[in-house]
TrEMBL record, chains A, B:
Top EC group: oxidoreductase
Keywords: Amino-acid biosynthesis, Methionine biosynthesis, NADP, Oxidoreductase, Sodium, Threonine biosynthesis
Protein name as catalogued: Homoserine dehydrogenase
Organism in which the protein naturally occurs: Actinomyces weissii
Protein task: Catalyzes the conversion of L-aspartate-beta-semialdehyde (L-Asa) to L-homoserine (L-Hse), the third step in the biosynthesis of threonine and methionine from aspartate.
Amino acid sequence: MLVDRPVLKVGVLGAGTVGSQVVRLLLERAEDFAARSGARLHVTGVAVRDLEAPRDPAVPRELLTTDSTAVATGNDLVIELIGGIEPARTLILAAFRAGASVITGNKALIAAHGPELYAAAAQAQVDFYYEAAVAGAIPVVYALRESMAGDRVTSVLGVVNGTTNFILDEMSTKGLSFDAALATAQQLGYAEADPTADVEGLDAAAKCAIIASLAFHTRVGLDDVAVEGITDVTADDIREAHASGCEIKLLAIAQRRDDELAQGVSVRVHPALVPKDHPLASVRGAFNAVLVEAEAAGRLMFYGQGAGGAPTASAVLSDVVAAAAHRVNGGQAPRESSYAALPVLGLQDALTRYQVQLRVVDAPGALAAVAQVFASNQVSIDSVRQSSYVGGQDAVVTIVTHVAPVRALDAAVRDLEQEERVESVVSVRRVEGL
Amino acid sequence: MLVDRPVLKVGVLGAGTVGSQVVRLLLERAEDFAARSGARLHVTGVAVRDLEAPRDPAVPRELLTTDSTAVATGNDLVIELIGGIEPARTLILAAFRAGASVITGNKALIAAHGPELYAAAAQAQVDFYYEAAVAGAIPVVYALRESMAGDRVTSVLGVVNGTTNFILDEMSTKGLSFDAALATAQQLGYAEADPTADVEGLDAAAKCAIIASLAFHTRVGLDDVAVEGITDVTADDIREAHASGCEIKLLAIAQRRDDELAQGVSVRVHPALVPKDHPLASVRGAFNAVLVEAEAAGRLMFYGQGAGGAPTASAVLSDVVAAAAHRVNGGQAPRESSYAALPVLGLQDALTRYQVQLRVVDAPGALAAVAQVFASNQVSIDSVRQSSYVGGQDAVVTIVTHVAPVRALDAAVRDLEQEERVESVVSVRRVEGL
């Protein structure tokens, strides 16, 4: 059955957790891949830095080589799983020039150098696939690039970093501090020894840039994303969130604004309160979920394992099958589409809601004065909750606004700080998904 | 910008809810479609039965025609939205012979005549797309056909019929009877005047056959699906389900069995108890959700609107963009892949769990006798709950089994009926998602 199919040479760059799984599955399931892609996939080499490093026995010793350039330029399909910017960028460009289609899961590289890579693939008339770059095995890249091709996306809201979600989940369910939850995550292998890229939101920001580019047919780079990580989230913040019927999630948000005040795309990553009955609030542990809202389709949610060797390998291999089928049957992967070229808006033009806690003088007229401050900044109020657990003559008021631009919300907070019947602004938190 | 792109002629068969939305969006968003597909999509005709019937003003009067054969054979892309077997089948085959690619949402036709249609498309070397046939705008067809191409699916569990889910949800949240809930669904337009196809599970069965075919690379037709609808579900059943911490859902189940006793594919549609903390239990109203388990990817869930004009149009139009891009750039949709040709197993070989309620003599040894009946049929017990609310010397025992073949479970139930310390078998229900 395999004999009559054309052979495609496959090179793999990197043999870490994902690379080992990819090689193992390509070898073990050769018949499945031949039947599904129409080609026999022949792994010719696996480039590694150190031939002697201990590694998964699933990768045959004789495939290993340190000559990554030869692997990049001597194959029909090149799978890049080194990660990072260099040498991944140089090797992928060399592969394109050599006529290879490239499959990668390298979100940092795409967020930083996407347009250069897309242009090189288009010039070489080869495929460039990167499903594994966003949310592991969950087909988010496909959903935005192809499934929404007949629709108009209005927003994407996602929990796209498993490490931070695990940490926030530990804090929420066990009352741990950030440091204690991070330590647990590191012990269990969910966080790296240097957790910066995850906990500072940079990994999520790279994914957010890719999501926004695909959703809005507009070039969005890492620098366009306003980023805030979770290192400042405290156990107190989580307790307060629970008291408001919410969880705190690190969200990647890509939003289209098209109103009289602003038109464009807003992209940001930050922790936010999410009501407990919202589907993203119940995303547990290291799972990922992405919520897409589109004009015709309405709300779609995708949920699954966003990281890990096997799920990421599953995403890489579906791209391999697609790229191989194009080699056999003609056709090509959808090209980068940035025709809409919408302006990228700053954080001040993002739309969100604030939950503001105020300590006010417990006297007639205080609440009216507070309401007036919001109104004069064109911010409507969704709900007001007054607790009088503080002693003396003060009260704590918790206000949740309607959706408004950050510019207006921040102006309202500044005015509240000046308002004489407000003793102090206790906290200001973003709320999403109401 | 549009001028330099090739023109593709598009014909639409049917101008009902979905057809009207499709035509409206193709006309309103011509620029978007041109940029995304690489071709100008020119709607040449919309075939209807009655030119004078009242219809959505979004469909220009001058496009309407009763000559469906001319629409089917005179275009590059044909969108079939008539539904039912004939004349849809004849028109699609004519479109293929005339060299057109076809996009449809006709699940009944695909479940009944899929192989004939796939073969005709392959012979004509054109595309055949049907994302809208399963779960509306949720890209389930894509997920199974392409996203899982590098993986091995072990099971698919779905809430794929919005009408029955709405009815069960009304029964669950409002305590309504089936008839009262059906009447509400009909008033709100969620159920048709003749609700047979939905409430008897036939619509879900057609989707289940398509899902199983795609998931397991095996031909599965409507006749292979064991079907039971929801007409026998009572308000009492729902109350009992709640008492067990469950909801009742109509599930479409496609399962791969590969153990020492049986190898093959099991496909069925029936109501089942689903624990409340399972993701499918919280699928509300007319929404759909599909849970895919694969060896490498693990568990993936897709959630969204499974029906309705706009969501279905969104799915149809993403297929239109893909088919148009193939016309411009070459390439083709993935062909039907039935290479695995797994045997289709009967219901007796399906794996499930039972919840069995028994009235037993409240005497020492009764429970041991019951446990012995299960054990002698190779069925393990997951949990036992005993309630003594019945008067006299009887007790009601609720047993939930582990996963076992229906054959063994049914044999255990038959033996229980003969066991002298069992007064009666009160109820037997299937449990999924534990």
